[in-house]
Amino acid sequence: MNQPAQTGKSASYGSKRFRSRSFKEALEFYVFISPWFIVFILLGLIPLLYGLYLSFTNYAGFNMDRLVYVGFDNYRKVFTDNDAMYSLGRTIFFTVIMVPASIVLGFLLAVLLNQNIKGIGIYRTLFFIPSIIPVVAVGTMWRSLFVEDGVINNLLLQLGLQPVDWLGYDYAIYPLFIMLLWGVGGGILIYLAGLKGVSKDLYEAAAIDGATTVQRFAKITIPLVTPVLFFQFIMSIIGSLQIFVQPILLAANSNSLLSTPIRPIYVYSVHAFQQIFAYGRFGYGLALLWVLFIMILALTVVVFSTSKLWVFYEVDQGGK
Amino acid sequence: MKKTLWTACLSLLVLSGMLSACAGNTNSNNAPGKNAASSENANAGDVSEKPVAGGKPVVIRHTMYDSEFTSEMVAEFEKTHPNIKVEIVSADYNKLMAMMAAGNGPDIIRTNSVTELPGYVLKGMALDLTSNFNTSSVFKTEDFLPVVNQFKYDTITGEHGSGALYGFPKDWSPDYTIYYNKKMFEEAGVPVPSSTEAMTWKQLVELGQKLTVKNGNKVSQYGLVYFNGGTIANQDLINLQLLQQGGSMYSDDFGQADLTTPQMKDLLQFWVDTAKSGVGPSPLHQETDWGGQLFVDDKAAIIIAGYWFSGFLKTNELTKDRLGDFGVAPAPTMEGGKRISPTGAGTGAIIYKNTKHPKEAWEVFEWFFGGKPAEDRAKAGYGLPGTQTLAEMLPQSTEFDKMNYDFIQNELKYTDGSLPYNPYLNYQAVNSIFEKYFTPVYFDKDSIDGATQKMTEELNTLISEGKQLVSPE
Amino acid sequence: MVNAGVQNKLFRVVIYMLLVLLSILFVIPLYWLVTNSLQIVGSASTFWPTSLRLVNYKYAVTFIDYWGYAKNSIIITAISVAIPTITSALVGYGFARLRAPGKNVLFLLMLSTMMLPGIVTQIPTYVIFFKLGFINTFWPWLFWALGGSAFSIFLYRQFFAAFPKDLEEAARIDGCSTFRIFWNIFLPISLPVIATVSILAFNGSWGNDYITPFMFLQNDKYPLATALFSIGYVFPGQKEITMTQVQSAGLILFVLPIIIVFFLGQRYLVEGVVSSAIKG
């Protein structure tokens, strides 16, 4: 919990107005966030609580009028269900690799696109294309790249190499990584906005002092874009732990969102989705998603508490 | 600054204006607040209901597809029924559940009779229409083909195919018939199958193997494909085999599942061998496209598909000019088993049990499923109708049409049969269980014994959950 | 710096090569859609074009009420871009520059709304909206827009928190109210962020908002995204078989506006606005 901080801002107005200044600021804070807060309370909170309640029942879609309260049964099942735990492991595996990969690659791409070359706008647009085209629209494309007789294997054959069973047990994770990394261009706008915020004067001053390109990058660019890196870090964690559509598109029937992905890419959200839509176990599926929620929240809080150490804001954000 | 603030406010006003205009289109019959403590008009065959106040037209909402119940058809209906407005609401299972939970369920619900009807009846979603049909001037029950029985379910005996009648099919096909490419048979020097005598499943697969062309490990021409999945162990095909042989994955009352019986293991072994032989797509031989696409691209010699496939061949640019290349043959049977060639879907609709306007809903239902649209559908040739009279109106003008017509009139004799799907299970759930546990078997990562053990366990868990959830009606 | 000229040239060549190579890689999905949109209807999806059927585009806009759905898309997107861009900035500023008890909890609460997939609240939300008479209207989108989007709020917060304190201090000494500081100082220099937020909001709404409209609207009010994915283009009489070529054409027309918006919008990512504001 924040106590009104005794920073230079408040102190400079004298202790007489100290209390009323912080009070006024707190009031202003609540006014500023009121649009979000009011809509959340009115439209968001009740469905959330209801959704939470449903996870404690045997809701199956059609028995809304005769729900049976089952206490923590659904939640207990989450931890005893082999599939749930296995798929959680898969999700964590992909997250641990994708989060750093996507941040590093995304950032480097943005740096590349930060040049003032002619036509850079066109390049930026092309890099962003994968984020514009809805993933489900090109599900068949991915399959046709990776099937046995697909484009990639044919390419390998041309190069004199052996074709690979990309969609089989041993290699299925690779097409998934490729699909996920394909979308790294989605973050370029955000990184660019961050990069553009770094004043050119700083670079010039450093150059005059004899700093090399690498030194300028490490000592100026990176520290000053940490707010944006932090944003991407959190968003990447939130997103990766919830990945769900791409594995399904690699499954045997890429036209049906109910296909079961092969074991190595059977991720947690797919398991929850299947429980709800294929098995009709709405209550249990919701419990699965709430458990994931808790995990994401916990992880976010941890990352937040470290932010004081490495994110450079001008105004103290008081990391929790 | 002031200017931008004003422009912002002005745009907001304009937007709200647009929105109110849109809000005015809200279905006024679903007045909020009068939240349906669902009107209890829901008793069997009861067609009386509260009179409509003020003569405003009643809105009947249905979940048929846009392409099935077109806007032209809606206009035609509303012309002769000025007291009813027909609206389409696309809904998947999730949205259907949401609508029902809110008391806003659609009046007419699209239903796959073979896999969904018993479940819907048990879940209290289907209105008993038996007396409606009996007193209707449009439907003649003596004229009904066996497929209509798929919309019957007896809640007392738990038998699917008899009991009260809850709906009617829009169109259907015997989904397990065989279409084949004559040219490929010629090239392989293999005689084409008979159009009246059914071969066995084993013979069919062997035939497919003769027509499979391989390039090392890659298959360039499949011998046998299926329209709804790979040529592998799959709920639909196995249920058909069980029906023909006499047997089921479940106990007689569907309360227990057992996939570890010798009968099941034999069938499953048959499919594992089939898949491994590469006669069709499978997790071992992956394809991007469905069986029908492979067939029209001349990458498959035989496809298991229904009468509707002939309509597909007629409209598809890649095949419509060479229809003479294709032939049709009966659905395969089990050795020593009964010859049954049923439908796998029997798509039609039920009327929602808690509909607020059962009388008007029936009017729409009767017209769509029994009136002129039914006749039009029969004449179009994309599927079979529900009555014998209409079945005689199927197209026979071209040679291809005539071949299909003759074939169907013969095959119709064998279409009475109810595939043993479990009413306590979602169709999708069983598919998922097959996909999850049986896929490893093709890769030799599990044995049939191991897989069937796990599948049986999980199915039984789901069945007991399902049974607890449905209240006996 | 000796060899500056040679190093520079090599550098530029490498940059160009990277840009071109990566562009080719990233543009493949678009290429896929365009290629397939030109194939004969009913052929298998492929990477190698064999025909040039432009008529598929005509089919795309005539087989379904394309422009009707597009009109709905425009309404929904206009609401979902214009309004949240401002309200999210307000909220983001609050979180970034103002202090209050409970701020961190509220911030985490706001972020947590992104950690739960929509399915959890969909059915309860439907029931509530039905009681409010919101089903089959665009009101939900208006209210959601007024509440801002967690994504945008978070992004604004990061940027506003990075602005120097001098900006505010100078203004306070002049007696500016907090709102004036926000509106007259912070916003004008946040052009890159505003552009980013707007473009991403447009992409999110026009291109990716298809489940909520499917759940809460009836067919005639569907936006393009929902129409393309849930109604789609089916062969006559074969309700479950998609005409992939026509759908590809429909998708190309569908993503065109987003591409244009992105291309025009990214020009606003300009440098040095903050520093000049301080100097000024």
Gist?
The complex is a heterotrimer of chains A (320), B (473) and C (280). Chain A has 320 residues and is an all-alpha fold.
Summarize the topology:
The complex is a heterotrimer of chains A (320), B (473) and C (280).
Chain A: H1 8-11, H2 18-54, H3 73-80, H4 82-112, H5 120-132, H6 139-146, H7 151-158, H8 173-182, H9 188-196, H10 200-208, H11 213-240, H12 245-249, H13 268-277, H14 282-310
Helix pairs in contact in A: 3-14, 4-9, 4-11, 4-13, 9-11, 11-14, 13-14
Chain B: H1 2-23, E1 58-62, H2 71-80, E2 84-88, H3 93-101, E3 108-112, H4 113-122, H5 130-135, E4 152-154, E5 159-160, E6 164-165, E7 167-169, E8 178-181, H6 182-188, H7 201-210, E9 213-215, E10 218-226, H8 235-245, H9 262-276, H10 291-296, E11 300-304, H11 308-315, E12 326-329, E13 347-351, H12 358-370, H13 372-380, H14 388-391, H15 399-411, H16 427-442, H17 448-469
Parallel strand pairs in B: 1-2, 10-11
Antiparallel strand pairs in B: 3-13, 4-5, 4-6, 7-13, 8-11, 8-12, 9-10
Helix pairs in contact in B: 12-13, 16-17
Chain C: H1 4-37, H2 55-62, H3 66-97, H4 103-112, H5 119-132, H6 139-146, H7 150-161, H8 166-173, H9 178-186, H10 191-207, H11 211-216, H12 224-231, E1 234-235, E2 238-242, H13 244-265, H14 273-279
Antiparallel strand pairs in C: 1-2
Q: What is the CATH first-level class name of the largest domain in chain B?
A: Alpha Beta
Q: What is the helix tally of chain B?
A: 17
State the end-to-end distance of chain C. 34 Å
Helix percentage of chain B: 40-55%
Low-confidence segments of chain B: 1-52
Note the run of SSEs of chain B as H and E: HEHEHEHHEEEEEHHEEHHHEHEEHHHHHH
Spatial arrangement of strands, main beta sheet of chain B: 9-10-11-8-12
CATH topology of the largest domain in chain B: D-Maltodextrin-Binding Protein, domain 2
CATH architecture of the largest domain in chain B: 3-Layer(aba) Sandwich
What's the main sheet of chain C like? 2 strands, antiparallel
